[in-house]
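HUMAN: Please help interpret these C-alpha cells:
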Amino acid sequence: MTTNFPIWLVALDYFLACLMIILLINFVLNLFLSEASNFVLYRFITKLTNPIINITNKITPNFIVQQLIPIYIAWLILMIRIYILPLFLGYSYIGKFAF
C-alpha cells in the first residue's frame, strides 16, 4: 500500500521533531550546567530555545519549575505530532494513535 504524504506535512513533522530534540537537549544541559556556563553548545542551544520558551510562556502553567519548561514544551509538541498532524491526513480516529 503506497500513500503519498504531502511534502508540507512531512516538512512540518520534521521541523517539529527537530524542535523537540533541541528542547530535550536544552533540558539535559540544564541538568548538568549552570546558566552562567561558557560551554559553546549550551550557549547555542539556549539562544535557539529562548525565543520558543518566550513564545509559549502564555500557555505554560506557573507552577512548572523554570528548568522543566523545555521538557514540557517538548511534550506539547509531541502531542501535536501525535494527535493533530494525522487530522491533516484525514484520519478521524485519533484514539488509535495513542499508546
Summary: The radius of gyration is 16 Å. The first helix runs from residue 7 to 32. The mean pLDDT is 86.
